[in-house]
Amino acid sequence: MTARTATRPALALLALCALLLAGCGAQQPTRGSNLSLMERYHSNKDLLHDGEGVQPTPQGDAMNAQEHLQRGLNFLAQNRQELAFEQFSRACQLDPKLAEARYQRGALLVARGVTAEARPDIDAALSLAPDNARAWETAGMLSFAEGNLTEAGSRFERALALDPRLAGAASHLGAIHNYQGQPDKALALFVRALEQMPRSGELHNNAGIAQAMLGSDAAAVDHFRAAITYGAPGNRVWNNMGLSLCRLGRYDEAFEAFRNAGGEAAAHNNLGVYLSQQGEHALALYHLQRALEVEPRYYARAAENLKRARLAARIAQGQGPASSTAAPLPMAGPDTVPTGPSGAMGIGPVPGAPGVATPVTLPPSATPLKARATPAAVREGELRDGN
């Protein structure tokens, strides 16, 4: 089978998935309350869920704002977020113009995904300390979480102008450039961020996306493998790696990557879609039929792709509408088995930004699929109706 070069308008076939920065998603309180931290604080609810054995500071104590701020920083260093929040709030009450206390409380709320409550503190911190690079970085993350990429990008740029070493700002801004179709700018930022966080799986994944968008799929595969090694969510990264391996014509390895992402049926479906779009109709039909055989009840998407692939094959062989007059054939794109509450992977571009992850061991290579061992009837181009 001759490998054909994939068209690069980007990521039409299998959406490359970016990964969100660790710490920017919503985090729930460690134990039981439906109230937010801010609501609990103002209603005098217990804020000690992550600090058993620590006595609360009396509301009428004699500590000043700076002392509360320092106590909050100490709790934050111990990852006792609720206790830290209480101390930052006490500091803000005593001195609303203490910029560091406003920043720390706002940053904690952003990290927990409570963006609406964070904005007043972040806006105040920027007003009180306009040269605080970390505040601009956090303000960018706030805008990013709210989906305002234009505002987020300008805030990350301001943060980096004040402190070029801020890896979080660089990685988020790179993700925005990737999403906006500017992978050259994105890659430069990811390289900068990787100097600070070389073991970030999410950063390697997003750098791989930029390389793939630039047409450097071999370099992309290297980044995706590093992403797996350093603990990035495997299903998305394996999905991305599968697409780059397809573009390199390494179909057996691509199948294994897709299988690691979502199972055997998903792997056959994804590879079948790719091969069909590359004009490899016989092999495409084989893989799409195999997807149905593996999961006949669940994999409705493979059945739709199989019908489209058969029509495309007929057109190519002159057995259907004239190819010169046929409209471009849209494929129902690849999909994988849902992985939980986050849903299926590989079904659409996801703007995201990288972060730090715990290293893991790269799984051993599986036995390569013999992709060319197709049934004789299919190899000879015999087209069959029905599923």
Element layout with pairings:
Layout: H1 37-42, H2 65-77, H3 81-94, H4 99-111, H5 115-128, H6 133-145, H7 149-162, H8 167-179, H9 183-196, H10 201-213, H11 217-229, H12 234-247, H13 251-262, H14 264-277, H15 281-294, H16 300-316, H17 376-379
Write a structural description.
With 387 residues, the chain is an all-alpha fold. The chain is built from 17 helices and no strands. It has helices spanning 37-42, 65-77, 81-94, 99-111, 115-128, 133-145, 149-162, 167-179, 183-196, 201-213, 217-229, 234-247, 251-262, 264-277, 281-294, 300-316, 376-379. Helix 12 (234-247) runs antiparallel to helix 13 (251-262). Mean pLDDT is 73; it is low at 1-14, 22-35, 46-54 and 321-387.
Q: Report the total helices.
A: 17
Q: Looking at the structure, what is the overall shape?
A: elongated
Rg? 25 Å
Mean pLDDT: 73
Strand content: under 5%
H-E string: HHHHHHHHHHHHHHHHH
Are there runs of 5+ residues with pLDDT below 50, and where?
1-14, 22-35, 46-54, 321-387
Quick overview:
With 387 residues, this protein is mainly alpha-helical. It has helices at residues 37-42, 65-77, 81-94, 99-111, 115-128, 133-145, 149-162, 167-179, 183-196, 201-213, 217-229, 234-247, 251-262, 264-277, 281-294, 300-316, 376-379. Helix 4 (99-111) packs parallel to helix 6 and helix 13 crosses helix 14.
